Amino acid sequence: MTNEKMLRVNGVDLCVEAFGEPGDPAVLLIAGATASMDWWEPEFCERLAAGSRYVIRYDHRDTGRSARYPAGAPAYTGHDLIADALGVLDGLGVSRAHIVGISMGGGMAQVIGLDHAERVASLTLISTSGGPGDPDLPGMTDALRAAFAAAPPEPDWSDRDAVVDHIVAGCRSCAAPGRPFEEAEVRAVATRAVGRTTGVESAMKNHHMIGGPGRWRARLGEISVPTLVLHGAEDPLFPLGHGRALAREIPGARLLPLAAVGHELPRAAWDVVVPAILWHTSGGWGRQADVLATKALAGDDPTGWFERLYAAADAGEVPMPWDREGPREPLREWASAKALTGAGRRALVIGCGLGADSEYVAGLGFDTDAFDISGTAIRTAKARHPASPVRYRTADLLAPPAEWIAAFDLVVEIFTVQALPVSLRREAVAAVRRLVGPGGTLITVMAARDADDGDEDGPPWPLTRAEMESFATGGLSLVRLEELQDPRLWRAEFRRDDPALG
After folding, report:
1. DSSP label of 206
2. DSSP class of residue 25?
3. 322: in domain
4. Do residues 243 and 356 share a domain?
5. Which domain holds residue 394?
6. Dihedral sign (CA 48, 49, 52, 54)
7. What pTM was estimated for this model as a whole?
8. Where is the AB hydrolase-1 domain (predicted)?
9. Are residues 56 and 13 in the same domain?
10. Residue 280: CB atoms within 10 Å
11. CB 396, CB 303: distance < 8 Å
12. Is residue 502 part of a domain?
């Protein structure tokens, strides 16, 4: 079952299908010449959508179920195909999207990035060129040129099996010679594409006859959006030099050569390509955290987004969150000013993430426990610090192990409470307070806001002065509350003199 629908775009009907949730960042997939949406396989689209993307694929004119023209007489140009891509976004109510284009679709993506930059969040250019035919760029390989020269006559276009064989043979010629050709998978896609296409002869001929948008290579330096170039190391049509040129001539572009990949997007490359696209379109881990937190809150799972974010980072789909080589500066500054030493006393680091603060506290001589609600974060921390004396474990601040209650001489709480929704704030503050043992110290650092500031969309959800002072109940007393700048933060120290629990 599909979610295909027809959109009226620029006076013609185009077939479109979307995966994922419309509120997620949009990714528009633009196929190559003669290719219907089928060549962006559903599983590929679903893997992107699983990374919290709204993935859109569509049939070009003359492919799939979209508008058909007589074979050899296309009444449209390359400019129309580019306008169609934008029209698909308009029809779905998408003002701005990450554009992913392969081959001809990659050329279209470049022109969209140049002429319609306001509609483009990023570009991913796959197996394409900024100047096909330019003398300073490598031409097609001798093997591909020979395959084209020896190509058999065109098939009987009414014979679907013959057409599928014809398409598979062409794909074989463009595949990487250094990897077994995925014939079964390619044949399955070709069969679906032929079965959906209303005029196969038109699909296979007309795109090669239309006028393009002209030459744009000299303008590549004007592209201002983040650009990722994915290019097969064994591409016989546009050898890797084309990808290198794009990455060199587009400001800030990043090239990721795909080993054992030709002019194609084989399943064997998906484990590299999907994470690369998700990373590139994430907007950084902070933006991805916002997306995941919004979904978690809507699903009544306010802490679930931490593990999803770390897991995405572990899969290479987003930069690793809260990744630092050393401790947070407010903690280091506070400990240095006090000439703090542990002397074997017990410490607990809340929301330890990848372990930088925990290792610092242990280095001061504390017998240190550290926890995070994300199992992936804990596994990563252990892997990064294999000889560490810190006892890392997965745990929930709102339901900590019973043996931790009132057990620590030092509790370090930095940025965890602010990452939980305001509805959980009182419960979270009380949970932190209970961990401090008799005579123990709590050091906490949070983003600051004024009491009369409007509610902020988190995470984070900064704290007011009164909310910081609310830690000082249940036997804890406030020693010092400081307001730091650049960024604006609270740093507070509390001490428990009364052994009674909060």
Report:
1. G
2. P
3. no
4. no
5. 329-496
6. positive
7. 0.89
8. 25-153
9. yes
10. 21
11. yes
12. no
